[in-house]
Design brief:
The longest helix has 18 residues, at 239-256. This protein is of the alpha/beta class and 258 residues long. The protein has helices at 45-55, 68-75, 108-115, 144-157, 181-188, 209-214, 239-256, and strands spanning 19-23, 60-63, 82-84, 89-91, 100-101, 125-128, 133-136, 163-168, 171-176, 198-203, 221-225, 234-236. The protein has 2 domains: 8-103 and 179-256, Rossmann fold (3-Layer(aba) Sandwich); 108-176, Alpha-Beta Plaits, CATH 3.30.70.1020.
Amino acid sequence: MIADTAFAPVTLAPSLSSTAFLLDIDGTLLELAPTPRDVVVPPRLPETLRSLYERTSGALALVSGRSLTDIDVIFAPLQFPAVGGHGAEMRLSLETEAVASRAPPMDNDLKKRFTAIAALSPGIIIEDKGYSIALHYRLAPQFERTIYEAVSAIRSDLPGAPFEVLPGKSVCEIKPVGFTKATGVRELMKHAPFAGRLPLFIGDDVTDESVFEIMPSYKGVSFSVGRQAHGVDGHFGTPKDVRAWLAQLLNDHATVTR
């Protein structure tokens, strides 16, 4: 176990040949933005990810609540293996264009009911991910309680509807039950080049906790960002710290192998 300090992960020097890097995006690699479309990819990050992907023989995956299409837009023209939509969809490798769908799309009538909540304020941004609906309220934080009350009212009206609510950082997301980031990671770890490696997961939000929980079963390690989440091996202060650590890890590896 690594000491509980703000930059504990910096003391870790994982082997690139035996580690599978699993990285959340928003709040972990990238700073959060007022809306999902406003995120900014720092100039050096794509090269860091590309180098890490190459030096691990492809054992790097992005694990996100975003759809695979959205992930690819953010990091274009680069693509990486990924678990998207909180485990709803997955790209196991870049050798094939096939995308494994992990769940059926969310019911359209249910989507409409949750989408209607945005009428409360123009500051509430709807993100339709196909498999889920996210209500972003970073531009209207005063409506947080009202949004969750409206979602609870829909749940009460449809007690048998198979959906769950994922609270996040200024976002309320509603998705069908049956899949999570953890189920996506478990599937990913069955396939080469991830299988047989020790996973290293970095995430920041409540939706990442399901992955934190399964890391011990793989003898892996996990780190949270911005807070010391329960069960993690350490944490970073900010996404900038995560990016700096990944870049330093590559530099150290290059020095050793010279």
